[in-house]
Write a structure and sequence with these properties.
The protein has 167 residues and is mainly alpha-helical. It contains nine helices and no strands.
């Protein structure tokens, strides 16, 4: 992974859903799943480019989703023990001394290695809340309304944390 592999992995781990702040930026056009794959494959060089050439002959790249591309890429460039280690990190993730913002970033980064654990909105929200500090978990959970999204819970956690620092 000497050439483009590592930067692309870092970029993929940081990739957010379409609900990211970029989606609200004027002039930002949503990119389809297939277009994401085309854009990512365009920057692959060296061994990663050769890997993509091989994948292109195996997979139907005209219908390849972004999630499938990430899965294939991570399977190639993250060996199984590393993926398992990152998944275990996600399982054990707790806010502890992190700020809420740091916890959110870490949750988003590590969650890419445990998507099967948070494959519904409810599971993602519950897992996020479980990792908060106990007092913050209690406050956010008490204020929580059914069917609140992950991003709303992040915002709620941040606002509770801000109000606590003012007291």
């Amino acid at each position: 992974m000497n050439d483009i592999g590592q930067p692309l992995v870092v970029a993929m781990v940081r990739t957010r859903d379409a609900s990211s702040s970029r989606a609200r930026t004027p002039g930002y056009k949503r990119v389809s799943e297939v277009e994401k794959v085309v854009c990512a494959s365009f920057i692959l060089r060296g061994s990663a480019g050769h890997w993509w050439d091989t994948m292109s002959s195996i997979e139907d790249v005209n219908t390849l989703t972004w999630d499938r591309f990430k899965e294939l890429f991570c399977n190639k460039y993250f060996i199984a023990p590393v993926r398992t280690m990152k998944m275990n990190e996600f399982i054990q993730l707790r806010q502890r001394r992190m700020t809420v913002g740091e916890y959110i970033r870490k949750f988003e980064q590590l969650s890419t290695f445990a998507t099967h654990m948070i494959n519904t909105k409810a599971l993602k929200v519950e897992r996020f809340l479980e990792g908060l500090r106990p007092k913050l978990y209690r406050d956010v959970s008490m204020a929580r309304i059914q069917d609140v999204s992950y991003s709303q819970n992040c915002g709620e956690s941040l606002s509770f944390r801000t109000s606590q620092t003012k007291d």
